[in-house]
């Protein structure tokens, strides 16, 4: 048993932190393959389940004699073998067929991504500087509990300190004048941009898999769709059905809890595979003015995407989940405070009342110190 888990950990380390072949493809395709392999190995323990094993030897699950019945053990073993082999072969075939990247295209892409990133980061502050008085200002919000309202704020005069806010949440009052200390900058995406999108778009566009863009990106999109078919038909759906079937015979509460979490994992990944197939690999497909691919990928990056190794891993999972949620909240709050500091510095440079902004800046910086201290004492 120990040798089996060590071998799986070694394969997982290779798939999570490297390529099968150096400088070929991208790590996004193979980084999650280790999760399918671990899931398949965990599923293989069902071969030891009395309801599966005993009938093959002529016994019922409680030990009484009966006619030999081998269909369960053969079906479970075939499901495991197909899932495990397909997960391994998927990464091997990908590495064998992926086209070599064009150096010039890669360099151009890296420069483009860098400029786009710098532009987005600068836009958070520079967007307000470049606007005139008759244009909507920086999107601001009060992040206090139960009082968060989003709107666009315009500085009243060169003295600073007060802002005219036009709220965008549709509630009353629609406008108001607020002092500096009641406003927090919000650099998240404006909700009005999402409302302008069509209710449903970007689905079943098969031409996305035939033409368009760089050869490597086109291959990557096709590979993701085909791998979604493999994951859905060979692993997620069969494992989900078998685990629901075996869960009806489960009386051990601890084992039932672990199986239930694996059922949730198979359901979530299966839904993500279906969305990838229907969107033809497009992450910007819209349904009811939201993007299901992005939301589901965020969910798969949660603790469900970290299958535990061995029986004691379930305990570690429960211990870490509370600390992880707290760490994410603190990290999000730290990012908001840092954005607030940048906004105050920029605003102080455009007004005459520098002391007012300096006082508020010191208050926000003290909040940042408190958040950073809390992060140091947060597990994990």
Automatic annotation (TrEMBL):
Residues 1-21 form the signal peptide. Keywords: Membrane, Signal, Transmembrane, Transmembrane helix. It comes from the Eukaryota. The chain crosses the membrane at residues 75-97. This is Uncharacterized protein. It comes from Cladocopium goreaui.
């Amino acid at each position: 048993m120990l040798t089996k888990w060590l071998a799986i950990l070694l394969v997982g380390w290779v798939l999570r932190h490297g390529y099968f072949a150096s400088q070929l493809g991208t790590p996004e395709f193979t980084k999650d393959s280790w999760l399918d392999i671990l899931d398949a190995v965990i599923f293989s323990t069902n071969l030891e389940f009395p309801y599966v094993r005993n009938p093959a030897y002529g016994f019922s699950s409680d030990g009484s004699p009966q006619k030999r019945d081998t269909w369960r053990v053969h079906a479970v073993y075939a499901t495991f073998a197909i899932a495990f082999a397909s997960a391994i072969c998927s990464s091997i075939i990908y590495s064998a067929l992926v086209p070599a990247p064009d150096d010039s295209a890669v360099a151009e892409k890296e420069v483009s991504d860098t400029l786009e990133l710098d532009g987005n980061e600068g836009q958070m502050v520079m967007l307000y500087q470049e606007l005139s008085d008759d244009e909507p200002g920086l999107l601001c919000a009060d992040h206090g509990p139960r009082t968060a309202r989003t709107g666009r704020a315009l500085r009243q005069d060169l003295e600073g300190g007060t802002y005219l806010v036009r709220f965008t949440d549709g509630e009353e009052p629609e406008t108001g004048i607020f002092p500096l200390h009641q406003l927090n900058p919000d650099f998240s995406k404006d909700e009005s941009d999402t409302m302008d999108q069509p209710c449903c778009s970007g689905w079943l566009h098969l031409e996305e898999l035939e033409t368009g863009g760089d050869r490597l990106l086109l291959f990557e999109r096709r590979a993701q769709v085909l791998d979604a078919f493999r994951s859905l038909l060979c692993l997620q759906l069969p494992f989900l059905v078998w685990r629901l079937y075996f869960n009806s015979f489960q009386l051990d509460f601890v084992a039932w809890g672990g199986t239930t979490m694996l059922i949730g994992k198979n359901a979530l990944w299966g839904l993500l595979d279906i969305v990838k197939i229907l969107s033809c690999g497009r992450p910007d497909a819209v349904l009811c003015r939201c993007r299901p691919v992005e939301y589901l990928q965020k969910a798969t990056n949660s603790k469900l995407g970290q299958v535990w190794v061995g029986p004691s891993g379930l305990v570690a999972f429960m211990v870490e989940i509370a600390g992880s949620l707290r760490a994410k909240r603190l990290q999000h709050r730290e990012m908001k405070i840092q954005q607030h500091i940048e906004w105050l510095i920029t605003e102080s440079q455009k007004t005459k009342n520098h002391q007012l902004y300096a006082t508020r800046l010191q208050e926000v910086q003290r909040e940042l110190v408190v958040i950073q201290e809390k992060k140091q004492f947060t597990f994990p």
